[in-house]
Amino acid sequence: MKKNNRALNDAQKFSLVRREAIYTGLALVGLIIFWLVAGFGTASLDVKIFHIPLWAVLGTVGVWLVAIFISALLSQKLFTDMDLEGDDDGK
User: Fold this and answer.
1) What's the average model confidence in pLDDT over 48-58?
2) What is the pTM of this model?
3) Domain count of the chain?
4) Mean per-residue pLDDT over the chain, rounded
């Protein structure tokens, strides 16, 4: 998570929070697409991992691993550490 040392007004904070929310929503959509492809897309393959079908492994454990990777990527590259208390106080 990036540390933000400069003072931000409320509009700048709102803009950053909005950007982070949009990218988080896009990450969710990407994760859902991965789940669909990994789970349903590999169902026709006759591949097994420890006697478990590939679609079951990718549709469960694979989704968790991709979600952890996406979360780490978002928190390291996109999210900004900032004080959320209001500076403007209605100004």
Assistant:
1) 92
2) 0.74
3) 1
4) 85
